[in-house]
Write a structure and sequence with these properties.
alpha+beta; Nucleotidyltransferase, domain 5; 8-stranded antiparallel beta sheet; 7-stranded mixed beta sheet
Length: 518
């Protein structure tokens, strides 16, 4: 099932929810909360932050803080702060990009579709669409806030926080469509012609998915304990048993008593040789114990009833020889299982088919266009999209043909149309991929870098040849390039952020067509 993410920017708080594997859950946009404050901050150096980080920066630079961002956009198309005028598109793009990056980190994958809830009475839908494009959300759908509310009321659980209706209702809207425009009609059992034995089961409240300790909105209920009944028969039985026990104890005691004035014969206590225990344990066999002799004495002893006289002394203690034990630590080697490669593997010089197998082959940049299409069709199957030979101002050559196999787009260029029919002497000039996470498609490099990989993964796999910049001022997205050490122009791509939480949104190799930010 596809993973669908919904984002709602409320007047004061932003929320996000996900529909995955048949479950609808909230996503924790904060470290300890499901929401994110809709706050924007512009620093003196021009950098823009949102959410909790903006709240933190406002402590040192309060003049650059903008609270109630969405509320201000209800009446104005721009926000002026710290000497800068930010358009509604720019502000919403910052908020969406930050929330999207946070959700990708929590989900640990890129969603297949994003629902953006347009605030009622707020900016136009065209502004939200432009902001979503700028935030690089991939495939997105705009949902009116009123539609989310109606779907939540019709299909969602009762008693939910109204602030959550935007994000959760959008997912119910995608599942069930528009809710009824009016109140729910009252239908009796007689109207249905049947008698319902059990009430209809309403959907459960969603849990909250977060990083670290998880929090949920599901309260644990205390089971009702059955009240114990008073049973007089049981009490009577206990009383009878107690009386019998007391009577038995009384007769046993009377039977053991001796008569008055009875005197037992004197006993003789014989002295015995006592072995003194050693005072310490040695690592070797201990020395013989010391023996003490006493004189045998006979004395009359009167033994009173009930007193037990013992003449048995404790046995002598024995020593134990301790053997030193040698402990050996054996290092157990650990191995990390890497995700498998797919039938197509990305490379700076082209695309490798059936990598790491006996049938491995390289479809290289610069190869004949007809050969490339034939090989990929034989390996993957028929293409999903084929534009045919068309003109494209963003691409090199007189004619360009884009062919998409699964999640991989192949760009073929005809540099000169005067040499024959379209496509004559055309070559493979670029591959490009975006959208579905590589964990699902297995479309990545030999180092397992693909869509959804983190910036930390990029730095680990390509520590020396990686360059990551922010080419657009005020945009959190990053542009990275991986140097192929003179073999080719390397690979390039777009990330949500330039720090470690950033995720790869797009990746390509070759210069057949211009990509972001061009």
């Amino acid at each position: 099932m596809p993973t669908v993410l919904s984002i709602h920017l409320g007047p004061n708080l932003a929320h996000a929810a996900v529909d995955s594997d048949g479950r609808i859950d909230l996503l924790a946009l904060g470290e300890r909360a499901a929401h994110m404050p809709v706050v924007l901050h512009v620093a003196s150096d021009g950098s823009v932050t949102v959410g909790s980080e903006a709240r933190h920066r406002s402590e040192s630079e309060p003049d650059g803080t903008v609270d109630n961002v969405v509320g201000r956009l209800l009446d104005a198309e721009t926000i002026e702060v710290a000497g800068r005028a930010l358009t509604a598109e720019t502000v919403i793009a910052h908020l969406l990009a930050h929330i999207y990056a946070r959700c990708v980190v929590v989900l640990d994958r890129v969603p297949d579709e994003v629902l953006v809830v347009c605030t009622a009475g707020g900016p136009e839908a065209t502004v939200y669409a432009a902001a979503a494009e700028r935030a690089r959300l991939g495939e997105f759908t705009l949902v009116e806030e009123t539609r989310s509310w109606a779907a939540m009321a019709a299909h969602g659980p009762d008693g939910m926080d109204p602030d959550l209706a935007g994000a959760l209702g959008a997912l119910f809207w995608r599942r069930h469509g528009d809710g009824p425009p009016g109140p729910k009609p009252i239908v009796t059992r007689e109207d249905l012609g049947v008698v319902s034995q059990e009430p209809a089961r309403m959907p459960t409240e969603p849990s909250v998915m977060s990083l670290g300790p998880r929090s949920v909105f599901e309260e644990s209920s205390i089971p009702d304990l059955e009240r114990r009944r008073f049973r007089p028969g049981l009490v009577l039985a206990v009383a009878v048993l107690g009386g019998l026990a007391l009577g038995a104890a009384f007769f046993l005691t009377r039977g053991d008593d001796s008569g008055p004035g009875q005197v037992h014969e004197p006993e003789v206590v014989t002295a015995t040789t006592v072995t003194e225990p050693p005072t310490s344990l040695q690592a070797t066999t201990a020395a013989p114990p010391t023996t003490t002799s006493t004189t045998t004495t006979a004395a009359p002893v009167t033994v009173m009833p009930g007193v037990v006289v013992s003449t048995t002394l404790p046995p002598a203690l024995t020593t134990t020889t301790l053997v030193p034990v040698t402990t050996t630590t054996v290092a157990v080697p650990t191995t990390t299982t890497r995700p498998p490669l797919g039938v197509l593997t990305l490379s700076p010089v082209g695309v490798v088919t059936n990598a790491a197998t006996g049938a491995e082959a390289l479809v290289g940049l610069g190869d004949s266009a007809d050969t490339v299409v034939a090989v990929l069709t034989a390996v993957v199957g028929a293409s999903a999209v084929d534009t045919g030979w068309v003109t494209d101002e963003r691409c090199a050559g007189d004619l360009v043909r884009r062919v998409t196999f699964a999640n991989l787009e192949v760009v073929l260029s005809d540099a000169d149309t005067t040499d024959g029919e379209p496509g004559t002497n055309a070559t493979f000039t670029q591959w490009f991929t975006e959208g579905t996470d590589a964990l699902r498609t297995s479309l990545w490099t030999l180092d397992r870098i693909g869509v959804g990989s983190s910036v930390a993964d990029l730095a680990t796999a390509h520590a020396d040849g990686l360059a990551l910049t922010s080419p657009v001022e005020g945009d959190t997205a990053g542009l990275f390039s991986i140097d192929a050490l003179g073999v080719s122009d390397g690979m390039r791509g777009v990330t949500t952020h330039t720090d470690d939480i950033g995720r790869v949104l797009q990746i390509w190799a070759g210069d057949g067509c211009a990509r972001w930010p061009n």
